[in-house]
Design a protein that fits this description.
It contains eight helices and no strands. It is mainly α and 215 residues long.
């Protein structure tokens, strides 16, 4: 049973990875021979990007839900009355927290796709070794994002130290009955991720509009 559970977990991860790879491959083909047809349509570039991002985000979310349900069935989590009783205690504050977390998950999925799309759009400027340039650009962009996230975290930590030091901040105040602070923090995190996504989108659109080379 342990080997079967391990094999099922690995299989689910492979399915999710293949789903993500296919989503990126569809955009990569748009910058090649398929671009002669698709980009000749009377459709702005941002609509092409939006169609790919929306489709990729929805299918990735479905894949994550599928993986979660399969994992719960494999570990027998959904059996018994405890699972149903947990939903009977859901409050409006819990719905607000989970809605904000869902927005963050969607923004993170869209950001991961736009990260890969930007790498592909950068490689589309070249006529040879596009795949290798895409992979290299993907890791370079990821490194830049990590450094920016680190600088932002340090800045927020120094700026918010005095506030947190003078405030009775605890896990209960974050996810307790009055979890307004938790919702505000999650919305702020979502806004920050959305800004990064918008920047990735703008760079991808600029490269596809001004620098694209379909040769």
């Amino acid at each position: 049973m342990a080997l079967l559970a391990l094999a099922s977990a690995v299989s689910l991860l492979v399915v999710l990875a293949i789903c993500f790879f296919i989503e990126i491959q569809q955009f990569y083909r748009l910058l090649g021979e398929r671009g002669y047809l698709m980009l000749a349509l009377p459709v702005p570039i941002w609509q092409h990007i939006a169609a790919k991002v929306i489709c990729g985000t929805v299918w990735t979310l479905f894949g994550m839900i599928f993986l979660t349900l399969c994992g719960m069935l494999t570990t027998d989590t959904v059996s018994g009355d405890g699972f149903a009783s947990d939903f009977s205690r859901v409050t409006a504050e819990d719905v607000a927290i989970w809605s904000a977390m869902l927005l963050i998950i969607l923004a993170l999925i869209a950001g991961a796709l736009l990260h890969a799309y930007l790498a592909c759009a950068f490689a589309a400027q070249f006529t040879q070794q596009r795949l290798l340039i895409s992979i290299a650009a993907y890791f370079v962009i990821g490194f830049i994002e990590q450094m920016a996230a680190l600088v932002t975290a340090v800045f927020v930590a120094f700026r918010g130290y005095k506030y947190l030091n003078n405030t009775s901040f605890s896990a209960a105040s974050f996810f307790g009955p009055d979890n307004t602070l938790g919702v505000i923090v999650l919305i702020a995190v979502f806004a920050l991720i959305a800004i990064v996504d918008a920047l990735l989108w703008a760079l991808t659109q600029w490269l596809m509009t001004k620098r694209l080379n379909l040769a």
